[in-house]
Design goal:
Neuraminidase; five-stranded antiparallel sheet; 701 residues; mainly beta
């Protein structure tokens, strides 16, 4: 496997050297161990990661990318164990004691976990899946969305959380600070750590008042420092129980950014707090567009060390703390923050890293992770830039065409990796209209097809546009009147497209339950399935049933292959791969319609697939298909991050490319590592695969 075009930088869970390592978009808490390692709560990967002093990134415990919801029942992703056998639920904070033990606020599991130096994770306190604020012995106590954690020199653990019966903002009645003693007793230090609640305004004009959890840090002597985003102050809780305001003034509407001594200072968001080796406090402060790192001296004097320009989280954020939400201080006084963002106004997060500012705040560098390979540049090989390329198709001369989804264009890639653009890259995409391709964008295009004359057929919504080699764009067909269902899903979307040798276009509709056949003059008829009748049944023509159709391809004999079952939860029908002959006979060639999505290799009637997330990581990222000259079918799995093969000879399903659950890129001998592969095409003995911002090639065994 090797890179053909684009950049493999971005998100993932890949371990390795700092420049190779990948993180989720949800890096949360940061802590520095006594040995200088940086420990990270990688919430999006449900893992605890570590950056060693030599720059190597490893997974200490946990892993997997199961989506976690605060409303999910039963609990998801919870298990004690060693290393990757442990499971976490979107952990948001970590702390490390003098012996190197790591304490984890396991947020969506509502528990506090401990990971020893050998990587063994155990539950320190709380009841998995139970949101509450009950004191008592560690196993009997309950926590609710613990979100900040600190540990003192005596082994006492402090936890900040929501004061709520179920963790919903509308019912948050406090923001407790809890304490877990070294002997395992849980007590409440204070139920309402803030004097005043925060508020959120809704469109109806009313405000909802609630308490945001405070942020914690503790020194070796047991003095607790609390950054309060509700009251906009920094407090100290002394071991003798005395509570004082170190900086800021509690009053309504006092948010601001004023430096100064004690009560003269003003704070805004107070996202995080950390202490240096001299017990000097630093806070991450901001309202989302004016982030800054501020020092709070022992006398309460506040000064700003790092100040970001006014910025949006959907811009390139390099060298600023614009998107930062967590903070740590290393032994040399360096200020560590999490950083994520995207480019060119896109709402899709495309990179995640840990950034270090020097103690004076004047310079910064990326400690681990990467900036984005996201963009819209033409060029050769790694110089080209894409924005979530998806569908791939070959022209008759061997040119590879790609649907560049977030640039709203089509791209061509030569055998030498030279990339060119068809259409107009844009951030704000509108419906494509007939005209010239030099004036046209293709909104969120995910799939495409070509005929023998090199005409391109591009689905946009429920319309098919035709692009000639000369660059003329015309409307082939508008299926709105066919697929509109007032009592159902409304307007449907084309998910798959393929052509036969006579120039007829076949399209798979996601929720209408049919595949249309469209003549070269744009006249549609239902080819297979029954309009607005969904299910799973093999058979000919209208006797067949489809549940939720996805990507589509064709083989040299004119048979069609289509992904089905891509919205499993709503229909209760598992993902399968279906085959339709030129006569319209539908059969299931692999997968289990009566089973939930999964990753299982084996015989055709045993194998299980994952073809889309629920909810989708991106509506643009779902499985696609290709067929080689021998009739073998290849299917991408952007969720498990692998490429599967369905053998023509016996229907046996195997995993060909990638490592299940590993998200990154490793070139060289198979299986290698890929990152959420989506588009796929095959030519001779080479597979071409699109993944976020790159196209890679695999020379088959």
């Amino acid at each position: 496997m090797s890179l053909l075009a684009g950049s493999t930088d971005g998100l993932g869970n890949q371990d390795g050297a700092a420049t190779v390592a990948r993180f989720s978009k949800d890096i949360k808490g940061l802590a520095v161990s006594p040995s200088g390692d940086v420990v990270i709560a990688d919430a999006g990967n449900n893992a605890i990661r570590k950056i060693s002093t030599t720059g190597q990134v490893s997974t200490v415990a946990g892993g997997g990318v199961t989506n976690i919801s605060i409303y999910a029942t039963p609990i998801v992703n919870y298990a004690d164990g060693t290393g990757t056998a442990a499971q976490f639920g979107a952990p948001e904070a970590v702390a490390v004691d003098s012996a190197g033990n790591t304490y984890v606020a396991d947020t969506k599991n509502h528990v506090v976990r401990k990971i020893d130096a050998a990587g063994k994770a155990t539950t320190l306190a709380g009841q998995p899946g139970k949101c509450g604020n009950a004191d008592g012995s560690a196993p009997a106590a309950t926590f609710c969305n613990p979100s900040s954690i600190a540990v003192d020199g005596a082994g006492t653990v402090y936890v900040a959380e929501m004061g709520s019966a179920n963790g919903r903002i509308s019912q948050v009645s406090g923001n407790p600070i809890r304490k877990i003693s070294a002997t395992g007793e849980v007590t409440t230090v204070v139920f309402k750590a803030s004097q005043m609640p925060s508020r959120q305004h809704f469109s109806g004009g009313a405000y909802v008042y609630f308490y945001i959890p405070v942020r914690l840090a503790v020194d070796a002597g047991g003095t607790l420092y609390v950054a309060d985003p509700n009251d906009h102050v920094v407090r100290k809780f002394e071991p003798n129980g005395q509570v004082t305001v170190l900086a800021g003034t509690v009053s309504e509407n006092n948010a601001g950014y004023m430096d100064g001594a004690g009560t003269a200072a003003k704070f805004h968001g107070l996202d995080a707090i950390a202490l240096d080796r001299q017990n000097q406090a630093y806070v991450l402060d901001g309202d989302g567009v004016n982030k800054r790192i501020r020092r709070v001296g022992s006398d309460g004097t506040v000064s700003t060390i790092v100040q970001s320009p006014r910025c949006s989280m959907f811009e390139t954020l390099g060298q600023s703390p614009c998107s930062a939400t967590h903070l740590a201080v290393d032994a040399a006084g360096g200020l560590l923050v999490n950083e994520f963002g995207s480019m060119d106004g896109s709402a899709y997060v495309t990179y995640s890293s840990v950034r270090r500012f020097t103690a004076d705040g004047l310079t910064s560098s990326v400690v681990a992770g990467s900036l984005s390979g996201f963009g819209a540049l033409d060029g050769t090989g790694g110089a080209a830039r894409f924005a979530l390329p998806t569908g791939l198709a070959f022209g008759k001369g061997g040119t590879l065409y790609a649907a560049d989804s977030l640039n709203h264009t089509l791209r061509t890639i030569s055998a030498e990796g030279v990339t060119r653009t068809i259409g107009v890259p844009t951030q704000s995409c509108y419906r494509a209209e007939p005209g010239r391709v030099t004036e046209t964008s293709f909104c969120y295009v995910t799939t495409l097809a070509l005929d023998g004359a090199e005409n391109l057929y591009v689905p946009t919504g429920n319309r098919i546009m035709k692009v000639t080699p000369a660059g003329d764009v015309s409307l082939l067909v508008d299926l709105t009147a066919w697929v509109y269902s007032p009592g159902g899903a409304g307007y449907d979307q084309v998910q798959g497209i393929a052509l036969d040798s006579a120039g007829n276009v076949y399209v798979a509709m996601e929720t209408s339950g049919v595949i249309f056949k469209i003549s070269p003059t744009g006249q549609p008829v239902v080819f297979a399935g029954s309009l607005h009748v969904r299910g799973h049944a093999d058979g000919q023509g209208s006797a067949a049933r489809f549940s939720a159709l996805g990507n589509m391809t064709t083989d040299a004999s004119g048979n069609f292959y289509v992904v089905d079952g891509k919205d499993y939860p709503s229909q209760g029908i598992g993902p399968t791969v279906r085959k339709i002959t030129p006569e319209g006979v539908v059969s299931t060639i692999a997968g289990k319609a009566d089973a939930a999505p999964g990753w299982v290799d084996g015989a055709r009637d045993v194998a299980r697939f994952r073809v889309a997330d629920e909810p989708l990581i991106s509506s643009l990222q779902s499985a696609q298909l290709a067929v080689d000259g021998s009739g073998n079918v290849y299917i991408t799995d952007p969720i498990t991050s692998v490429i599967r093969k369905i053998a023509a000879a016996d229907g046996q399903v195997s995993t060909l490319v990638g490592q299940p659950g590993r998200y990154g890129f490793t070139a060289g001998p198979l299986p290698g590592m890929v990152n959420r592969p989506v588009g796929i095409a095959v030519r001779n003995s080479t597979l071409y695969i699109s993944m976020p911002n790159a196209v890679v090639q695999v020379h088959l065994p």
